[in-house]
């Protein structure tokens, strides 16, 4: 199956995000916006997550956002999941219009969830509603424990924060208690998960939390 590569179209966002949300709600599809820096482990996190969900009878599709290239989409495709590559050609975020344009390339009667891997940075993606149900912020241990203070909007708007590559905490001066305190000062509702996403078994607590959100 060939990967469909889409190009981002930039248009006014707010009204279109509401339209996207209505389309997905009508089809009972849950959309999750996964955000984080380049190298935070977003693709590995998504792959392990959708494999776990598949074993639970929940089918997923992926919108893979990158400035250029199809490397991560090819990896997802090899796992047997429907994926559409979105290349923004320089834009630092995904907008709702692009999501609207991509949805027809999925069989919306055969999937339960769509995961959007947003462009890798901690600034622009947080500013744009794309019609998602949940926002997940990945913060990997090697990035450091000062990111909540430096990039607050990303964490203020997140429903959950994943401290990824947590197995590396012993090699870095990373204070997870400080991160949690600074997060909850700004966002009392955010859930925190500590995951080594290369270990497929560690995805379970997050996946079960997500399933509960999906089932309402």
From TrEMBL:
GO-annotated molecular function: GTP binding; GTPase activity; nickel cation binding; zinc ion binding
Annotated ranges, domain CobW/HypB/UreG nucleotide-binding: 32-193
Keyword Transmembrane belongs to the record: no
Keyword annotations: GTP-binding, Hydrolase, Metal-binding, Nickel, Nucleotide-binding, Zinc
InterPro entries registered for this protein in UniProt: CobW/HypB/UreG_nucleotide-bd, Hyd_mat_HypB, P-loop_NTPase
Top-rank taxon, per record: Bacteria
Gene3D superfamilies, sorted: P-loop containing nucleotide triphosphate hydrolases
Biological process per Gene Ontology, one example term: protein maturation
Family: Belongs to the SIMIBI class G3E GTPase family. HypB/HupM subfamily.
Protein name: Hydrogenase nickel incorporation protein HypB
Species name: Clostridium lentum
Gene, per the UniProt record: hypB
């Amino acid at each position: 199956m060939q990967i469909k590569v889409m190009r981002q179209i930039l248009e006014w966002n707010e009204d279109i995000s509401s339209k996207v949300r209505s389309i997905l709600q009508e089809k009972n599809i849950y959309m999750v916006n996964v955000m984080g820096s380049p190298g935070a482990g977003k693709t590995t996190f998504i792959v392990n997550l959708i494999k776990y969900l598949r074993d639970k009878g929940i089918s997923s599709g992926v919108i893979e956002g990158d400035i250029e290239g199809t490397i991560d989409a090819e990896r997802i495709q090899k796992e047997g999941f429907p994926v559409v590559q979105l290349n923004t050609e320089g834009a630092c975020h995904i907008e709702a219009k692009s999501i609207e344009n991509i949805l027809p390339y999925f069989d919306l009667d055969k999937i339960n969830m769509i995961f959007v891997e947003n462009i890798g940075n901690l600034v622009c993606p947080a500013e744009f509603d794309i019609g998602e149900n949940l926002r997940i912020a990945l913060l990997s241990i090697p990035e450091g424990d000062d990111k909540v203070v430096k990039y607050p909007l990303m964490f203020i708007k997140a429903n959950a924060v994943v401290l990824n590559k947590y197995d590396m905490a012993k090699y870095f001066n990373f204070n997870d208690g400080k991160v949690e305190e600074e997060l909850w000062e700004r966002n009392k509702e955010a859930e925190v998960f500590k995951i080594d996403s290369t270990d497929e078994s560690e995805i379970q607590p997050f996946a079960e939390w997500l399933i509960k959100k999906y089932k309402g």
